[in-house]
Amino acid sequence: MSEAEPYGDCLTHPRSHVDVWAKFERSGRVSRGSEYEEYPRGRVMFDTTNESFTILADKCILNRKGMIAQIKKALNLLKKVRLDTDSRYRCPHCLRGKQTNVGED
Length: 105
Description:
alpha+beta, 5 strands
């Protein structure tokens, strides 16, 4: 939290997915040459008005209770956490599904 930066009424991680992914590539945590957009992703925000956390993520993450538990544990999110989607955090699988439905009634 001490490194978080303001984003409206919220606090969020100060670095972009691009910057964090590059760091992960250098450390070997992810495959070199892979793109962060290839994977489900999200962001945790802290709302300063109601002092609560929200996990914004792709539905591929939000639908996995075990994954949400791991995120909460890793980030020490002990209070109740809101889960929500955001159009910026969509994996290619979900985007392809959306694209294949374009134009259908």
